[in-house]
Amino acid sequence: MAGKEKLTIKRLIEEANYFCVSESKYKNKELYGITDGKAVGTYIEHKFEKYLNSKYTLKIGSSASGIDLPSEDIKTDIKVTSIKQPQSSCPFKDARQKIFGLGYNILVFVYEKTDDPKTETTTLNFVSCSFIDKERTADYTTTFRLREMLKDKANEADIIAYLQDKNIPADEITLSLLAKQILKSPPQQGYLTISNALQWRLQYHRIVELSEKIKGITKIV
Fold first, then answer.
1. Which of 36, 61, 75, 208 could form a disulfide with 128 if both were Cys (CB 3.0 to 4.6 A apart)?
2. How many C-beta neighbours within 10 Å does residue 61 have?
3. Could you tell me the CA-to-CA distances from 197 to 99, 185, 200, 208, 219 in Å, in that order?
4. Where are the alpha helices (DSSP H) in the chain?
């Protein structure tokens, strides 16, 4: 471990930038002809983790922990997705995640894949890379509407009705507790699109297209 420095969020963002630049120039033989987005994503994720591991002391997550970089000071999941449909899935813990965020940061790499039949290599051009602070990982529309409702002096019953209308996956007791929590500590504006399913489906269009500066979102590429 001697000689390795400790990974920090600042370093993680810097290294993601470096990785995007160098990887976008790399002629990759292993990914040529592969159309399975999950396989491409896993390959890039592991390559980035291996690169980080060669320079820093860090904890790499297991599938049990569910987060790629689970140490408390980093607590970041790495997502790699195609620009054709910038989305991924993540484990569903509870309905609260859609309103108050996932509970960890996300580093999302968005690539455009080009295969070259002459050289039988693939180039991954990273068209977007963003670090999303855990405070910003809630659902955009849900948090936007709830924040508007709170401005309009909504009460507990109004909020429960809205959550039911949006099919937030929770029973009545949980919805009541959620409504109380929303009234007590209003949610931050989220920037993901989170679809209800057995797993949350996260969509990143808004992050990719984001042009204004938002506290808690770092546009790396």
1. 208
2. 17
3. 15, 26, 6, 23, 28
4. 9-25, 37-55, 96-100, 140-151, 156-165, 172-184, 205-209
Angle between the N-to-C axes of helices 156-165 and 140-151, in degrees from 0 to 180, rounded to the nearest 10: 160
Is the pLDDT assigned to residue 122 strictly greater than 70? Answer: yes
pLDDT above 80 for 198: no
Tell me, yes or no, whether 108 and 168 share the same domain. Answer: no
3-state per-residue secondary structure call for 104-135:
CEEEEEEEEEEEECCCCEEEEEEEEEEEECHH
Q: Does 169 reside within a domain?
A: yes
Q: Is residue 59 pLDDT above 70, yes or no?
A: yes
Whole-number Cα distances in Å, 47 to 62, 72, 80, 155, 214:
16, 22, 11, 49, 29
Work out whether the CA dihedral 189, 195, 201, 206 comes out positive or negative: negative
Non-local CB neighbours of 45 within 8 Å, separated by 6+ positions: 68, 78, 80
Quick: pLDDT tens for 124-177. 999 999 999 999 999 999 999 999 999 999 999 999 999 999 999 999 999 999
In a domain, 92, yes or no: no
The parent domain of residue 199 ranges over 5-86+103-137+194-219
What pTM did the predictor assign?
0.94
Residues 64 and 34 in one domain: yes
Type and span of the H or E element at 217: strand 217-219
Instruction: Report yes or no on 189 lying in a domain.
Output: no
Give yes or no: residues 79 and 177 share one domain. no
Pair (174, 207) in one structural domain: no
